[in-house]
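Preliminary data (for renewal application), flavin-adenine dinucleotide complex.
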Amino acid sequence: MNGTRVVVLGAGIVGAACARELALAGGFQVTVLDRGGAAEATTAHGEGNVLVSDKGPGPELRLAQLSRRLWPEALAAIADGPAGSANGPSGSADAVRAVEWDPKGGIVVATTEAGADGLHRFAADQRAAGVRAEVLDADALAAAEPHVTRDHTAALHYPEDAQVQPAAAAAALLGDALAHGATLRTGCEVLGARTRGGRLTAVRTAEGDLAADLFVNAAGPWSGRLAARLGAPVDVRPRRGDILVTAPLPPTVFHKVYDADYVGAVGSSAEDLQTSAVVEATRGGTVLLGSSRRRTGFDDRLRPEVLAAIAAKALRLFPGLAGVPVMRAYGGFRPYVPDHLPVIGADPRLPGLWHASGHEGAGIGLSLGTARLLRDLVRGTEPEIDPAPFRVDRPAVLGALAPSEESA
Ligand SMILES: Cc1cc2nc3c(=O)[nH]c(=O)nc-3n(C[C@H](O)[C@H](O)[C@H](O)COP(=O)(O)OP(=O)(O)OC[C@H]3O[C@@H](n4cnc5c(N)ncnc54)[C@H](O)[C@@H]3O)c2cc1C
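Predicted structure:
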C-alpha cells in the first residue's frame, strides 16, 4: 500500500472521516476534493445526533454501534494531536471543544396505546442486539424532562445517544486528516472520468485531470450524479429535511427527545411529506425542532406547510414551546438509498472507484464507522462488522436514477 494515491470526492463529514482514517492508516497519499468548501453542504444543513435509539437490529445498527464507540476515541485522539506535531495539541483541543460532543442520551415518547406497544416491542429487539433502553415511568420522565407532555403512554431512555455540532465535527476530522498529511482542494468540481483498461485512473475537473489509484465517492446526496459522471451510476437521491430553530431559551430540553413514530418516518420510503417530532437543545441555548422528510429532488425552497407541520408536532411533545420565538428555519438533502442502507465498498463495475455514501438521516453519526469499514476494505483486512449489507452491487443501489432528480 505504500504511497497509494487516494482522492476522496466530497469534503462533507463522510469524506472527512474517510480521509482521516486513510491518512492515519499510513501508506496512503490522501487528497480531499470538493466543488465547494469543506463541510458546507448537507453536513452543515442537518442536526448532529449520533443515535442508536432509532435503529432496529440489523446492519445499520451494527454500523451505528461501531460509530458510537469510535466517536469519543476519535475526539480524544484529535485533542491529543498527531505525535510530534508542530501544530501542538492546543489547536486540536480547541477544534474538539467546538465539536460540542454531548453524550446526553435520547428519550422516545409514545402518546398512544398503539405507539406504546410498538415502542416496547422495538426496544426489546434492540436490547437483544446490545442497545441500552430503559423504561421511564411518569415520575422518571418528568424528572428527566420537566417540560415534556404529561399526555404520554410510554417513554424509553437511551443513554448511548449523543450529539455533536456537525460542521465542527467534520472540520475536526478533516483538520486531523490534514495534520496527518492529507491535502484539501476546494472549489474544484469533478466533471468526468479518465479510464485506462477499464480502470478509473483520473477524474476530470475544471482545473484539469487528477490522477490517483483509488477514488472514494463521498458526494452525499450528489453521489448518484457524481457516480453517473464517472460512468458507474448508483441510486442515491436527495430526501429533503427541514428544521426550525428557536431563539436561545433557558434550559428547557435536556435530552434528544422524539416521538415514537419518528422511527416509522425514517424507515418509510414515501415521497410525500412525513413529519415527526424531534426536539433537542444546542449548547448555545437554541432548540432545534425537526423533522420532515420529502422527496422533491434538489428543490431547496422552504415550505410554510412543512414548517407548520413540524411546529405542530413539536408542540404536542413540548406544549410549553408555544409562544417561543422561532429565529430561523433551514433544510438540507439527506442522501437516500431506496433500501435505507449506506453504500460502502468497491464498485465492481469500475475498478479504482469506491463509494462511501447514502447515509440518509444518519451520516453524521455513521461517518466514523463508515470510514473504519472503508479503511479495512481498502487495506484488505478483516472489518469489525460484516460489510456485505452495504455492498455496491445490491439491487437498491444499482437501480435506475430518477431522471427528474438527476437533472435537477
Ligand atoms: C434536516 C436534516 C437533519 C439531519 N439530522 C441528522 C442527525 O441528527 N444525525 C445524523 O447523523 N445525520 C443527520 N442528517 C444527515 C446528515 O446530515 C447526512 O447524512 C450527512 O451530512 C451526509 O454527509 P456527506 O459527507 O455524505 O455529504 P455532504 O455533507 O453533502 O458532502 C458531500 C460533498 O460532496 C461535494 N460534491 C458533490 N458533487 C461534487 C462534485 N461533482 N465534485 C466535487 N465535489 C462534489 C459537495 O460539495 C459536498 O461538500 C440530517 C440531514 C438533514 C437534511
